[in-house]
TrEMBL record:
<dbReference type="InterPro" id="IPR043429">
    <property type="entry name" value="ArtM/GltK/GlnP/TcyL/YhdX-like"/>
</dbReference>
<dbReference type="InterPro" id="IPR014342">
    <property type="entry name" value="Ectoine_EhuC"/>
</dbReference>
<keyword id="KW-1133">Transmembrane helix</keyword>
<dbReference type="InterPro" id="IPR000515">
    <property type="entry name" value="MetI-like"/>
</dbReference>
<dbReference type="GO" id="GO:0022857">
    <property type="term" value="F:transmembrane transporter activity"/>
</dbReference>
<comment type="similarity">
    <text>Belongs to the binding-protein-dependent transport system permease family.</text>
</comment>
<dbReference type="InterPro" id="IPR010065">
    <property type="entry name" value="AA_ABC_transptr_permease_3TM"/>
</dbReference>
<dbReference type="InterPro" id="IPR035906">
    <property type="entry name" value="MetI-like_sf"/>
</dbReference>
<feature type="transmembrane region" description="Helical">
    <location>
        <begin position="166"/>
        <end position="187"/>
    </location>
</feature>
<dbReference type="GO" id="GO:0006865">
    <property type="term" value="P:amino acid transport"/>
</dbReference>
<keyword id="KW-0813">Transport</keyword>
<protein>
    <submittedName>
        <fullName>Ectoine/hydroxyectoine ABC transporter permease subunit EhuC</fullName>
    </submittedName>
</protein>
<dbReference type="Pfam" id="PF00528">
    <property type="entry name" value="BPD_transp_1"/>
</dbReference>
<feature type="transmembrane region" description="Helical">
    <location>
        <begin position="29"/>
        <end position="55"/>
    </location>
</feature>
<feature type="domain" description="ABC transmembrane type-1">
    <location>
        <begin position="29"/>
        <end position="221"/>
    </location>
</feature>
<keyword id="KW-0029">Amino-acid transport</keyword>
<feature type="transmembrane region" description="Helical">
    <location>
        <begin position="199"/>
        <end position="220"/>
    </location>
</feature>
């Protein structure tokens, strides 16, 4: 109780300290966003590469992908971060080299969450109705062209809610990059704690991370609405903008008939065929 009373009494001076340190706090927010965005981009690339590899017909390719995914899902993000920061430089030449702290954070986040996202990609592609694969054969499309023109656009709409949750987890996981001398938001909060005390500093951190997480939710909901609209599963973004503020995966799905699916698949296939003839 005394802590709560002290928190209220010191609120004014603490807010002034936040304003005084705002340039450093904003620098920390920028580093957090940069590490999160770059880590998410790397994770997305890894997710598609290894997610598709998990579906490959070649046993060796599937085996390598499975080992990669299980290794990075089964080991701690903190251990991976410390290994890249402190063990990698001690390896014998030419394997050992020093990485920039930002690159260490991006690699650790990308590898760890990319392994989780690979399973999302694999599961989403596997959830596309088998009739779509039959349509690829009926339209004489190559497996690769059919995958990227017909299957992945439908799987993309399915995987976005799960990816949204993963990117929020990645944002929260980025708080550990300060342990490798990267001056992110949490590092700046720790500096603020020395001046304001525990209550205010960590309450400020909760609010800051929450606001950034909601920005991610809004962005990913926008992508989900757009992806659903492009395959005939929902309204356009301008017609359902309120859905931007819903929880991931709760955007309007709309209805679609088999005729709509066939028509859109035929349009995509026709465009692909024209491109191939050109």
């Amino acid at each position: 109780m005394d802590g709560v009373i002290g928190f209220i009494q010191d609120l004014g001076p603490n807010l002034q300290l936040v304003l005084d340190r705002m340039p450093m706090i904003l620098d920390g927010v920028f580093i957090t966003l940069l590490a999160s965005v770059l880590g998410a981009a790397l994770a997305l690339v890894i997710a598609f590469v290894f997610g598709l590899a998990l579906l490959a017909k070649n046993v060796l390719v599937r085996g390598v992908a499975r080992v990669f995914v299980e290794f990075f899902r089964g080991t701690s993000l903190v251990v991976q971060l410390f290994w890249l920061a402190f063990v990698l430089p001690q390896l014998p030449y030419p394997m050992g080299f020093q990485l920039d702290p930002l690159l260490v954070g991006v690699l650790a986040l990308g590898l760890n969450y990319g392994a989780y996202a690979a399973e999302v990609v694999r599961g989403s592609i596997g959830s596309v109705p088998t009739g779509q694969y039959e349509a690829i054969s009926a339209l004489s499309l190559s497996p690769a062209r059919g995958m990227f023109r017909i299957v992945i656009p439908q799987a993309w709409a399915l995987m976005l809610p799960s990816l949204s949750n993963l990117w929020i987890q990645l944002l929260k996981g980025s708080a550990i990059v300060g342990t490798v001398t990267l001056y992110d938001l949490f590092f700046q909060v720790e500096q603020l704690r020395d001046r304001t005390g525990t209550w205010f500093a960590y309450s400020f951190a909760l609010l800051a991370y929450y606001l950034i997480a909601w920005l991610i939710v809004i962005l990913m909901n926008g992508l989900e609405i757009r992806a659903k609209h492009q395959i005939g599963r929902g309204p356009a973004l301008k017609e359902s903008w309120r859905s931007l503020f819903r929880a991931p995966g709760s955007t309007p799905g709309g209805g679609r008939t088999a005729r709509v699916v066939r028509e859109r698949a035929a349009v995509k296939a026709g465009t692909a065929g024209e491109g191939g003839l050109a």
